[in-house]
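[recover] target loaded
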């Protein structure tokens, strides 16, 4: 009788899981910032970030075939944020203590108010961008992706990415008075 020793079974997706965990750890602030701009408050942004991670985790078998993992994750985050924003568009939330902690370094209450108003103007201006411009802007600014990476992620020519970015920046400059 032949001795059949089972071969060790490798945990499927272990490399993918490690890649996802590392990317989420390294890009946590950028992802959260992007989602904050999309949904408008920190609590919803954190919920969207958690949902993004779960979506990526459930689809980790795709990780090995993805050319740019960061772009893939940011694309899922943008879609998740948009979905959340649609369902909670009119809902208003009370500011969380963490939001005021983000501005704790402001030298005075007046500066804090001014900074909060400026951030609100920029966030509202980003929300008024056309969806395709918003996507390119957020992937470039918060995702820190190159134009080439964005083009590959959203499957459009690089010239289209540059055109959308230029349109987004022009719109934002007009909306916030040249502060972008």
């Amino acid at each position: 009788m032949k001795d059949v020793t089972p071969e060790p079974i490798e945990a499927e997706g272990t490399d993918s899981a490690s890649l996802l965990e590392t990317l989420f750890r390294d890009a946590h602030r950028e992802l959260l910032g992007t989602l904050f701009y999309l949904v408008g408050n920190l609590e919803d942004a954190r919920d969207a970030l958690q949902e993004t991670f779960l979506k990526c985790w459930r689809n980790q078998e795709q990780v090995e075939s993805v050319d740019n993992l960061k772009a893939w994750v940011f694309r899922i985050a943008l879609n998740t944020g948009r979905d959340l924003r649609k369902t909670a568009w009119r809902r208003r939330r009370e500011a969380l203590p963490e939001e005021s902690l983000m501005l704790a370094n402001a030298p005075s209450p007046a500066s804090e108010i001014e900074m909060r108003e400026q951030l609100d103007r920029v966030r509202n201006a980003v929300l008024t961008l056309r969806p395709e411009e918003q996507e390119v802007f957020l992937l470039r600014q918060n995702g820190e992706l190159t134009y080439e990476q964005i083009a590959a992620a959203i499957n459009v020519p690089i010239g289209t990415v540059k055109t959308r970015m230029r349109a987004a920046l022009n719109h934002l400059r007009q909306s916030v008075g040249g502060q972008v």
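[recover] notes: The first helix runs from residue 14 to 26.
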